[in-house]
Design a protein that fits this description.
It is built from nine helices and eight strands. The chain is α/β, with parallel strands linked by helices and 235 residues long. The longest helix is centred in the C-terminal third of the chain and has 19 residues. The protein is globular and about 40 Å long. An eight-stranded parallel beta sheet has the order 1-8-7-6-5-4-3-2. The chain has a single domain, classed as Alpha-Beta Barrel (TIM Barrel), CATH 3.20.20. The chain binds D-xylitol-5-phosphate and zinc ion. Zinc ion binds next to strand 2.
Length: 235
Amino acid sequence: MSRHDFVDCVRRCRPAVVPSLLMCDFANLEDELRRLEAADVRLLHLDVMDGHFVPNLTYGLPIVEAIDRTTSLPLDVHLMISNPAKYVQRFVEAGADQVTVHIEADDPIEQVLQQIRAAGAAAGLALNPPTPLAKIEPLLPLCDTVLVMSVMPGFGGQAFNPVALQKLKTLNEQRDAEGPLLEVDGGINDETIGPAVESGADLLVVGSAIFRHHDYGEQVARLSRLARQHHVAQR
Ligand code: DX5
Ligand code: ZN
């Protein structure tokens, strides 16, 4: 899917609940993907960690490639790695429709965002809870999505940090119709999804609030309903 198709797809389905495949059963990945498709999710969020940028390791190119081979859902790949410049092209080749990199990474991020778009994918820029918006403002024209972290990245199941809400509100007020999509990641559940949507989030990444339950369909449906209710209330 091209960058424009990805952005259009998100604009059409927002607010969207986006499952994060961090806590799924990797021994039964195909089955997990079918369950998520049956739950009517519109895209998938893949958390790549290098044990360096964050104190945890997850998975990399072979798993992204295997997921791409197994589902036609668009893939939103969140790179929590110190040196994304070396890898973004390969993640796009592996099937990423959007690649998100962190402003706190070591590489020159302006160039990395350009690399992602040149490779044909949508470019996302993430910032951690302590990082001020001022750090990313000059780069906004290069971003298809801004990913506002509501936890310190590394682990699922952490509590939502409300500092994300103010950032979302500010970004939402500043953007016009062509402005970046807004995504929030970490601690999204029944209580926090409403405030996140009301603050402007289009994409709601959800890990534990889906995968800790047996019935993914029920979780996705309830969270999506809450998101839509708050989306209407926001207007
Ligand atoms: C955090 C990851 C998230 C996270 C979401 O390091 O980027 O995608 O696993 O999980 P929950 O919803 O459990 O916070
Ligand atoms: Zn993530």
